[in-house]
């Protein structure tokens, strides 16, 4: 019945409004809202709003419209819907200027919603506010204050601060509370205006009205935060505030301000916050408030949110003001109770606060560890996130084992976004607090397994670094990682990456039998893992790259499964991903190289941040080497390890031998070395080697202080170096052999044999050991007697040894000893291993050891030398760069008389053709009258005879190129800017650079000035091989 | 200090907005859009706080309306929940068991109540009675000065 009546009234109302509208009344607000709500689509709604906006705009033209108020109200609704309403700003100001309260009320509401601090009408607003602030009606002043609090710009603050201050001093509580908050807003906006309010604030705190107290507390808080001086000034207010708080706690039930049994929690919170600011770093103030804080903390009802809000604020205050420790424990306990609360909001707040306070009082927070850990299982994701952060903050040496267990359970079910962060944090925590390395490793393997693909790359590299740095851990790590990888082959790519790196590096440790009770892992087991993972499409590219590298390394560590390894390395040779393809191709080539691979694929040095820099420094700073020489002289034992780090230092053990008289001419070298050493053998055969580019590095030349060991044999990972300890003295010399084992296995029954030419006799002393551990060495001394004076010493060497019971043999030859000056005379370019070979070998070895493992570096040095020694001796036309052609004749320039006669008709025709073209200033295809002068140094064009293309000369220059057939771009001379340039870089610093050409190039000064064309001609060798068909 | 307060429906329609700090219009719209989608996508078992830019956002749902306040970092989230609740109580007392439609059709009244309760982003009056008394007095003035015609009422309508 009542419903029917309501509907009837509504109907009448609607008709009334329709009739009204036909008479010129604008649409009512509620009709507009109804229409908008009735709109079914956005387009309909827009149409309604646009129509009404147009109407409102129209009516604004009429200044005296009595409907302005209604129109603004509608406009505000339109504004809330998100449509433009800025055209109403001026109208709002006009409304505000009206006398009617309704107009002012709506006008100020519109001003608050439509204007902001940047509006241009601010001057108008300021004037209106100024008028209304002094209005006798308190509600009008109230509206003005409210507007000022919402939209006051800095200028308004300055203009109106005094008016606000006057209102604060008035005796009207309704306006006082508003004015206090306006003052707060003004102080926040323009802190200088603080002084205006300081005097009147104190009296405000004596008021009884809670609204005024709220405003006053807010204002004082803001002022204290802004200025330390004011903070000190208000410190004496602490007792007042404590009294207010005490009254609130003690007063009985006051219905007006009561919230579920707690009297005015809003005011309590405000006062507690002010106390926090006043008591910070102030012992006296802290003492004054300790009691009341304890009272609040113990007496507040915690059943409802309100009580907890107060407790929360109390805890913050207690933690901030450095109150007594008992109080602080009370505070942390409150947070601990919060954690057990059923309300998720309170748990969240507690975790957040604990996170903030954990650095202040870790011990106190530790006691709630279990509760925190339980929060990891909370259904709310934000709580879990905080709990995780707090868990990591709480971790330390004593609790890591326990905490880790819980965190790992959490990690297992955690969302993807947590896994990555959790994995990184776990690494940091375990690295810092792990009881031992095994535990660290096991935990991290579990983390990698659980976090799966979300583990960030840094964790992978940190893991690798950790395993690399702890040699005692490696054997354990490789087995554990192998088992982990086997179990979880595809789901955890980062785990696989770490596992593959470790297996690759320490594969030999993996297949060594460790304990009797664990089943031994065979080579084929390991390869099976790779066979399962590498071809899979689920494996990421990064993992595949790791796998291919690991396989390449395993090829030197495993003995029975090489064919399977090679097949696996090969499968990605045509992979679409370039990096993987390159690895596959390169490693396949390296595996096939033979003995070289042992050097190239040996174990990585310990990965630390500075290791590379330290190793590289010797090459750049020779001065340091010389200073280190002094040390070496004192310690002139066979500390070859140390010496090999010195790169070029050579062997200082010969310093002080009897070669003084023979080498007195090396003053230049000694000068460079500061004269610290007076016996040096400058034997660098710079000029003799075609590829001894390193020999011409100035740095190296100058810092060659003494005998270098020469490499007699370098095969299958075993290197034998021979060095002269004592040069010829009474036709006797003493040499030292050092054998290095770079294979991962240890060598047994090592035997070194040496034979010399008939002019010499040799005696071998027993070796220091016949067993060489992996990465170890052994030494043996030899004495040589020269029977025919002046003979050149040459030596053939042979080694035999056993690896895992398998017999190995290698041969080598030494034709030149850097320690014997005689050797310089002849035998320089014999086939087999000449000095440059030795140098190359040594360099190569250095490269791998220093781990600049770009295969180019390694292979080019040695294999080029091999290539030279073989290729230069084969068939073909050979020339050295300084060759002078014997033939004086210039080809094609002197025809015979018969040829002249026969060519006459052609000459006539050609002459006409030539005339025509020359007259037209066009270029002839072949200009016989101005022929190109050929030079006697061309090689055969690259790309084949007749193809045109590019021709090189035997000195290394590029000449004669005609790239586009028919278009003559025929250069007779060497093209200067077409060159290969060799750059030797060490640690990104270029130490040597030269153009690889000995051709005569004359350049105008300034052109290509940065290029060093001074390659020594006689170091260039050229061999022309023509194919049989030609 | 509260930076802004938004009221929006479960459908994501804005019902009330109060800005205590000046933002450009474009940014206001962006904040509304982002917060509304973010809050509506939260599950009921999640806590009532979220971090948005450098502010803490406290929200609470009453029936079909979400009340959402953005406060500063060192403000008390729990008391902000009480502020929201107090505002709802005020609306409830004023309209007599308030519903979303009341706020839609009388949004200006909702603003007036809010302005009597909060000022400059801080609580102005902690007594419900005082707030409602002030509102009633002002409504009375408004009523007295509005002439009522038969076909044309001069009020807001």
From TrEMBL, chain A:
* Comp. bias intervals (Basic and acidic residues): 822-839
What's in the keyword line of the UniProt record? Cytoplasmic vesicle, Golgi apparatus, Membrane, Protein transport, Transport
**For the region Disordered, what residue ranges are annotated?**
807-865
Q: How does it sit in the membrane?
A: Peripheral membrane protein
Domain GAE positions? 705-818
| Assigned GO CC terms | cytoplasmic vesicle membrane; Golgi apparatus; membrane coat
Q: Name one GO biological process term.
A: intracellular protein transport
Name where it's found. Cytoplasmic vesicle membrane; Endomembrane system; Golgi apparatus
- Biased composition, class Basic residues, residue ranges: 840-852
Q: Which PROSITE patterns match?
A: GAE
Specify the signal sequence span.
none
Locations of Polar residues compositional bias?
Answer: 856-865
**SMART domains registered for this protein in UniProt:** Alpha_adaptinC2
* Similarity remark: Belongs to the adaptor complexes large subunit family.
Name of the protein described by the UniProt record: GAE domain-containing protein
Q: Which organism is it from?
A: Caenorhabditis angaria
UniProtKB/TrEMBL annotation, chain B:
The primary site where this protein sits is membrane
Q: How does it sit in the membrane?
A: Peripheral membrane protein
One cellular component term (GO) for this entry is: clathrin-coated pit
**Gene Ontology MF: a single term:** clathrin adaptor activity
Matching entries from PANTHER family are given as: ADAPTOR COMPLEXES SMALL SUBUNIT FAMILY
Assembly and interactions? Adaptor protein complex 1 (AP-1) is a heterotetramer composed of two large adaptins (gamma-type subunit AP1G1 and beta-type subunit AP1B1), a medium adaptin (mu-type subunit AP1M1 or AP1M2) and a small adaptin (sigma-type subunit AP1S1 or AP1S2 or AP1S3).
Name-wise, this protein is AP complex subunit sigma
Q: Which organism is it from?
A: Caenorhabditis angaria
């Amino acid at each position: 019945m009542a419903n029917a009546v309501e509907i009837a009234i509504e109907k009448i109302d609607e008709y009334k409004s329709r009739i009204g509208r036909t008479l010129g009344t604008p649409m009512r607000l509620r009709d507009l809202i109804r229409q908008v709500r009735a709109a079914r689509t956005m387009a309909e709604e827009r149409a309604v709003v646009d129509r009404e906006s147009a109407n409102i705009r129209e009516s604004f033209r009429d200044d005296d419209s009595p409907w302005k108020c209604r129109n603004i109200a509608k406009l505000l609704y339109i504004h809330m819907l998100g449509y433009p309403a800025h055209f109403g700003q001026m109208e709002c100001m006009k409304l505000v200027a009206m006398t009617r309260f309704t107009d002012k009320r709506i006008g100020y509401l519109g001003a608050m919603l439509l204007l902001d601090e940047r509006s241009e009408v601010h001057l108008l607003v300021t004037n209106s506010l100024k008028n209304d602030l002094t209005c006798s009606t308190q509600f009008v002043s109230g509206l003005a204050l409210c507007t000022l609090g919402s939209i006051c710009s800095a200028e308004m603050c300055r203009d109106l601060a005094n008016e606000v201050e006057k209102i604060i001093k008035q005796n009207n509580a309704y306006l006082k509370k508003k004015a206090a908050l306006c003052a707060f807003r003004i102080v926040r906006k323009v802190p200088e205006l603080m002084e205006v309010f300081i005097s009147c604030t104190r009296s405000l705190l004596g008021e009884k009205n809670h609204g005024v107290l709220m405003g006053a507390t807010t204002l004082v808080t803001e002022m204290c935060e802004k200025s330390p001086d004011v903070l000190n000034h208000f410190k004496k207010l602490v007792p007042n505030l404590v009294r207010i708080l005490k009254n609130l706690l003690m007063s009985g039930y006051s219905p007006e301000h009561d919230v579920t049994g707690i009297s005015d929690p809003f005011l309590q919170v405000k006062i507690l916050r002010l106390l926090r600011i006043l008591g910070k770093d102030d012992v006296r103030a802290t003492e004054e408030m300790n009691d009341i804080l304890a009272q609040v903390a113990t007496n507040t009802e915690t059943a409802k949110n309100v009580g907890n809000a107060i407790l929360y604020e109390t805890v913050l205050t207690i933690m901030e003001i450095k109150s007594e420790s008992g109080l602080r424990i009370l505070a942390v306990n409150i947070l601990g109770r919060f954690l057990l609360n059923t309300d998720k909001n309170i748990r969240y707040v507690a975790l957040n606060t604990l996170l903030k306070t954990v650095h202040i009082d870790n011990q106190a927070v530790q006691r709630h560890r279990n509760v925190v850990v339980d929060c990891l299982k909370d259904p709310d994701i934000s709580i879990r996130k905080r709990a995780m952060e707090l868990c990591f903050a709480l971790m330390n040496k004593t609790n890591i084992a326990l905490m880790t267990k819980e965190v790992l359970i959490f990690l297992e079910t955690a969302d993807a976004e947590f896994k990555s962060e959790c994995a990184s944090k776990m690494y940091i925590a375990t690295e810092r607090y792990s009881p031992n390395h095994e535990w660290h490793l096991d935990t991290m393997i579990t983390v990698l397994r659980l976090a799966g693909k979300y583990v960030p790359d840094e964790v992978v590299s940190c893991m690798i670094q950790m395993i690399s740095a702890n040699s005692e851990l490696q054997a354990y790590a490789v087995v554990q990682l192998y088992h982990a990888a086997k179990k979880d082959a595809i789901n955890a790519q980062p785990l696989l990456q770490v596992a593959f790196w470790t297996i690759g590096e320490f594969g030999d440790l993996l297949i060594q039998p460790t304990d009797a009770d664990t089943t031994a892992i065979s080579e084929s087991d390991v390869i099976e893992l790779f066979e399962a993972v590498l071809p899979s499409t689920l494996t990421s590219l990064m993992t595949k790259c790791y796998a291919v590298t690991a396989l390449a390394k395993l090829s030197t560590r495993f003995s029975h499964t090489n064919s399977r390894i090679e097949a696996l390395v090969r499968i990605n040779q045509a992979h679409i991903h370039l990096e993987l393809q390159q690895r596959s191709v390169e490693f396949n080539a390296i595996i096939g190289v033979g003995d070289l691979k042992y050097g190239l694929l040996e174990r990585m040095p310990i990965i630390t941040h500075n290791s590379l820099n330290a190793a590289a420094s010797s090459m750049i700073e020779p001065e340091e080497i010389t200073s280190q020489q002094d040390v070496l002289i004192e310690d002139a034992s066979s500390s070859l390890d140390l010496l090999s780090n010195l790169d070029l230092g050579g062997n200082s053990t010969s310093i002080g031998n009897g070669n003084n008289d023979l080498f007195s001419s090396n003053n230049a070298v000694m000068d460079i070395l500061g004269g610290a050493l007076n016996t040096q053998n400058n034997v660098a055969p710079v000029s003799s080697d075609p590829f001894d580019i390193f020999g011409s590095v100035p740095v190296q030349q100058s810092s060659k202080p003494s005998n270098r060991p020469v490499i007699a044999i370098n095969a299958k990972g075993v290197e034998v170096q021979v060095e002269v300890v004592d040069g010829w003295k009474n036709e006797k010399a003493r040499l030292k052999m050092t054998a290095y084992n770079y294979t991962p296995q240890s060598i047994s029954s090592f035997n070194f044999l040496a034979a010399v030419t008939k002019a010499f006799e040799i005696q071998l002393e027993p070796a220091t050991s016949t067993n060489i551990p992996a990465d170890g060495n052994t030494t043996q001394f030899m004495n040589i007697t020269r029977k025919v004076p002046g003979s050149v010493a040459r030596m053939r060497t042979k080694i035999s040894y056993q690896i895992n019971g398998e017999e190995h043999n290698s041969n080598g030859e030494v034709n030149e000893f850097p320690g014997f000056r005689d050797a310089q005379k002849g035998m320089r370019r014999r086939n087999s291993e000449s000095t440059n070979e030795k140098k190359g070998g040594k360099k190569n070895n250095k490269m791998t050891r220093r781990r600049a493992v770009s295969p180019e570096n390694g292979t080019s040095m040695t294999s080029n030398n091999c290539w030279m020694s073989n290729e230069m001796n084969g068939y073909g036309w050979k020339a050295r760069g300084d060759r002078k052609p014997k033939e004086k004749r210039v080809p094609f320039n002197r025809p015979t008389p018969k040829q002249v006669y026969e060519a006459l008709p052609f000459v006539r025709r050609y002459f006409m053709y030539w005339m025509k073209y020359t007259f037209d200033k066009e270029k002839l295809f072949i200009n016989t009258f101005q022929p190109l002068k050929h030079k006697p140094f061309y090689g055969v064009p690259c790309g084949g005879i007749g193809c045109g293309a590019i021709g090189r000369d035997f000195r290394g220059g590029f000449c004669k190129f005609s790239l586009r057939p028919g278009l003559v771009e025929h250069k007779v001379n060497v093209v200067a800017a077409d060159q290969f340039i060799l750059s030797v870089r060490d640690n990104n610093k270029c130490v040597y650079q030269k153009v690889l050409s000995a051709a005569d190039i004359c350049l105008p000064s300034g052109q290509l000035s940065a290029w060093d064309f001074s390659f020594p001609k006689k170091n260039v060798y050229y061999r022309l091989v023509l194919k049989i068909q030609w | 200090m509260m930076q802004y307060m938004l009221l929006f429906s479960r459908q994501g329609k804005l019902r009330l907005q109060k800005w205590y700090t000046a933002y450009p219009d474009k940014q206001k719209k962006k904040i509304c859009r982002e917060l509304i989608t973010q809050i509506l996508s939260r599950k009921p078992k999640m806590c009532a706080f979220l971090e948005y830019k450098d502010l803490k956002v406290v929200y609470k749902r009453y029936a079909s309306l979400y009340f959402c306040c953005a406060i500063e970092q060192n403000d008390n989230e729990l008391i902000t929940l009480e502020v929201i609740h107090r505002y709802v109580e005020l609306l409830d007392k004023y309209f007599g068991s308030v519903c979303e439609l009341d706020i839609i059709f009388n949004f200006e009244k909702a603003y007036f109540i809010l302005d009597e309760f909060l000022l400059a982003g801080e609580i102005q009056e902690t007594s419900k009675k005082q707030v409602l008394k002030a509102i009633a007095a002002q409504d009375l003035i408004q009523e007295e000065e509005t002439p009522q015609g038969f076909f044309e009422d001069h009020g807001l309508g």
